[in-house]
């Protein structure tokens, strides 16, 4: 019997964020190179998209979060803290250290960790294609580590651990989101608003605890760039949450499609960051291997 066809809307809702998140690291890298800071970037993006989500909820006449159970609230708060707050700090720091093209490619290892969580906590089996995908993905990361591309200032192999930490955070977040949306208590819009609100509270608490007043003293132009990234991220996140909320929107399908983002980042970086980054054949090969490996892991 043939497997049921996946609705085209799932592909559109997954590839849309891939294009958006392929572009945002490029403009963020430009802002970071002009005096922006990772924590400032994360806060600005989250403030912008949270405000947009809350305004959208209010425009629909909804009072956010009041009808959700404690369990659903806990799931999306955890997803916001791990999958957004920690993940975004790590990805911005990765962009600053190794460059947008390399960082985005490493973050695409996310489906590997999402699958590992499914195997460990949900008892899903590991097939031959998954094993092959792991090998291909590791080869891609190895290719990136010796590609001698990315940030022109140079970077060390250990710096790849920063975007890799972002990949783990995003994997945890997506698994939690799929579970929470499957409960059926909330709409994608309310879920993503709660996710980002929790992340915003976590980041503000971190900034206050560490006395990070520097998030308010960056060059004014960088805030504008990060705000634009926030608008694009708002649309991308809502599309992803909508895809995950659908019966056919399995993490194993949505995650690998979104993980094609580094292909777009590599192209955008080549044309828009030539003065900051070097896109070598090794970078292109590594990005392709990571994406192919990520796809095989979740086939």
Approximately what portion of the residues adopt beta-strand conformation? under 5%
Overall structural domain count: 1
Task: Give the SSE order as H and E letters.
Answer: HHHHHHEHHHHHEH
Number of helices: 12
SSE-based structural type: mainly alpha
Radius of gyration: 18 Å
How can the largest sheet be summarized? 2 strands, antiparallel
Strands, total number? 2
3D shape: globular
Question: What's the topology here?
Answer:
Blueprint: H1 8-33, H2 38-59, H3 70-98, H4 100-107, H5 110-122, H6 128-145, E1 150-151, H7 161-183, H8 188-209, H9 220-245, H10 251-258, H11 261-272, E2 277-278, H12 281-297
Antiparallel strand pairs: 1-2
Helix pairs in contact: 1-9, 1-10, 1-11, 2-3, 2-8, 2-9, 3-4, 3-7, 3-8, 4-7, 4-11, 4-12, 5-7, 5-10, 5-12, 6-12, 8-9
Can you tell me about this structure?
This protein has helices spanning 8-33, 38-59, 70-98, 100-107, 110-122, 128-145, 161-183, 188-209, 220-245, 251-258, 261-272, 281-297; strands spanning 150-151, 277-278. With 299 residues, it is an all-alpha fold. It has one domain (8-126, 156-270). The longest helix has 29 residues, at 70-98. It is globular. The model has no long low-confidence stretch (mean pLDDT 84). Pfam families: EamA. Keywords: Membrane, Transmembrane, Transmembrane helix. Residues 13-145, 164-298 form the EamA domain. The chain crosses the membrane at residues 6-27, 39-59, 65-86, 98-122, 128-147, 159-179, 191-209, 221-244, 256-273, 280-298. It is a multi-pass membrane protein.
């Amino acid at each position: 019997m043939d497997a049921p066809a996946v609705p085209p809307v799932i592909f559109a809702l997954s590839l849309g964020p891939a294009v958006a998140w392929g572009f945002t690291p490029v403009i963020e890298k430009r802002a970071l190179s002009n005096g922006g800071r990772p924590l400032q970037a994360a806060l600005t993006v989250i403030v912008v998209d949270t405000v947009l989500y809350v305004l959208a909820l209010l425009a629909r006449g909804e009072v956010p979060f009041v009808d959700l159970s404690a369990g659903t609230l806990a799931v999306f708060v955890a997803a916001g803290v791990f999958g957004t707050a920690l993940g975004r700090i790590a990805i911005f720091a990765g962009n600053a250290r190794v460059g947008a093209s390399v960082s985005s490619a490493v973050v695409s290892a996310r489906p590997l960790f999402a699958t590992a969580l499914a195997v460990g906590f949900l008892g899903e089996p590991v097939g031959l294609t998954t094993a092959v995908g792991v090998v291909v993905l590791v080869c891609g990361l190895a290719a990136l580590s010796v590609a001698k591309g990315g940030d022109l200032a140079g970077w060390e192999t250990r710096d790849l651990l920063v975007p890799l930490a972002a990949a783990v955070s995003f994997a945890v977040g997506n698994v939690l989101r799929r579970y929470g949306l499957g409960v059926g208590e909330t709409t994608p819009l309310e879920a993503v608003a709660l996710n980002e609100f929790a992340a915003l509270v976590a980041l503000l608490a971190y900034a206050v605890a560490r006395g990070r007043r520097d998030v308010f003293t960056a060059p004014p132009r960088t805030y504008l760039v990060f705000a634009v990234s926030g608008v694009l991220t708002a649309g991308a996140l809502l599309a992803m949450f909508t895809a995950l909320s659908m019966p056919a929107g399995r993490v194993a399908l949505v995650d690998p499609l979104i993980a094609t983002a580094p292909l777009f980042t590599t192209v955008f970086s080549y044309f828009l960051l030539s003065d900051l980054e070097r896109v070598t054949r090794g970078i292109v090969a590594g990005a392709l291997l990571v994406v192919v490996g990520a796809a095989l892991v979740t086939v």
